[in-house]
Structures are given as structure tokens and as C-alpha cells.
Design goal:
homodimer; 115 residues; alpha+beta; Arc Repressor Mutant, subunit A; 12% strand; globular; DNA-binding
Chain lengths: 115, 115
DNA sequence: ACAATATATACGCCAAAACGTATATGTCAT
DNA sequence: ATGACATATACGTTTTGGCGTATATATTGT
């Protein structure tokens, strides 16, 4: 049920924090979009995504060849509040990462998550 | 000016998180009170207090032989908000640590901080 | 069935961080 | 000056965690 300590550990890494903030801003992104936006290697991003999912911060769904990650919809209220606060305080990173994402061509189409 | 990443790193350790939550709850405590409340060794507590002060999360003042630590009064609003949220989510720890603190005998007298 | 694409994982390596123990520093009382 | 108390720091060890490279798995299109 996601305690504060594992939550802080999950966010105590630059790569993971940038991923979570970008996902909170963008709603849902596939791995290759995150790789492009953060300018990091695919295995590095995948490893951190895996950690964030195990920690219960992110959820994923497969759609064809892509796997879309998003901030878990059932995050406790205190955790959502913290992400909101973090976003305010980390505008610089978020602005850059979002800008690079929007410059990316050939982004996969999203289908509405079922039900 | 305390960025989110160092702040998360500061709280991503059980000892440090318990210290910060207890201080937020109690206002100001000397090292020996924290040692007693958390049931940890003095060097361990001192080391973590030092890290939290360097990170800008705590401030300290000397009063005679004691050094009192407290959550820094100039913490950014987003950081204070996060601590409030963390306290809500970590009630179990906080309750135990506070209870042990109150059971402690011979606690030093506090003088109002000057000016 | 095969090639191309997207993603995950395994392995070995290196660096960061936490720890226990011992010791240093600073303050007070006698 | 000395001893007692409170706190900090140094040192060596161990654990944890992140990384790059290589490889495995899964899906799609031909």
C-alpha cells in the first residue's frame, strides 16, 4: 500500500524523478518516448521504469509493440500531493524534457485504455 | 535553495525520515533526545543529523552542552507541504518514536531561541 | 518463417552510502 | 585542572545501487 520511505527512495534518483514528473505531466508515454525526451539509453530507462513499477509508483499497459507507462491511478492522496509539489519545484527539468518530447517525430498512437 | 532531488535523497533513509518527522512533530530536540526516541546509536544519529543539516532540511543551535535541531524555518513551501503529507502517511513510526521520547526522563530544559 | 522494432533482463564493474567502533572536540561543574 | 557529559568526526568495512554492454523476449509486418 505504498509507504513514504519506499516512495522517497523511488524518487531519490534523477532519472526516476524526471520520468515520474514527465509522466505526471503527459499522462501516458511509451518507453521510446521517454528515452527520447530524457536523452538516455533504453536499458537505463527500462531498468528505472521497472523499479518504479515495483515500487507501486507507475503502472503499465501493453498496446501492440509498445508498453505505455503512467503514474498509477490508485496512488494514495498524500503521494499525489507530493508529486504535485515536486512538479512545481522542478519546473526547469520538466520544461526541457517536455520540449524534447514534443520535438520527437513518429510518436505511436494511443488508444484509450479499455474500460 | 533546496531542490526536490536532494530533498528526496535526504528523506530516502529510514533513520533520516524518522528524525525529520519527529522534529516536525516536536519542534526542537537535542541529539540525546533523538537517540533515546529512535533507539539508535549516538554516532549514527549524529551522522544523519549532519547530512540533514548540510542538505538544508534541518537547522541547529547550541545551548550549553546541548545542540538542538529543528526543521529549518526557511524551508520552501513545497517542502513543508511534503513533510506534512509524509507525517500523515507515517503515523505508525511517528507514534512509536514520540511515545518513547515522552517516556524519557531528565530531558534538558529549552530556552526560547534568542530574537 | 523471418526480419525489424520495442522492451526487458542478465552480468560484471564501479561508486556511493551506511555502518560499527574508536576517538576527538566542546562545555559544564567541581 | 580534571572529570563527566554531549556531540562530532575519522577510519576501515560492508552493503547498496547505478551503469554499460550484451543478449533475451515479445510483437508486428512481409
Amino acid at each position: 500500500m505504498l509507504d513514504p520511505l519506499p516512495f522517497f527512495k523511488a524518487l531519490a534518483d534523477e532519472t526516476r524523478l524526471r520520468i515520474v514528473l514527465l509522466l505526471q505531466d503527459q499522462g501516458e508515454l511509451c518507453v521510446c518516448e521517454i528515452v527520447h525526451a530524457l536523452e538516455l539509453s533504453q536499458p537505463k530507462v527500462s531498468r528505472h521504469l521497472s523499479q518504479l513499477r515495483s515500487a507501486g509508483v507507475l503502472s503499465d499497459r501493453r498496446q501492440g509493440q509498445w508498453i505505455f507507462y503512467a503514474v498509477d491511478r490508485h496512488l494514495p492522496a498524500w503521494a499525489e500531493a507530493m508529486l504535485g509539489n515536486a512538479a512545481v519545484a522542478a519546473t526547469a527539468w520538466l520544461d526541457n524534457d517536455r520540449a524534447r518530447l514534443l520535438r520527437m517525430g513518429d510518436r505511436p498512437q494511443r488508444q484509450a485504455a479499455c474500460c
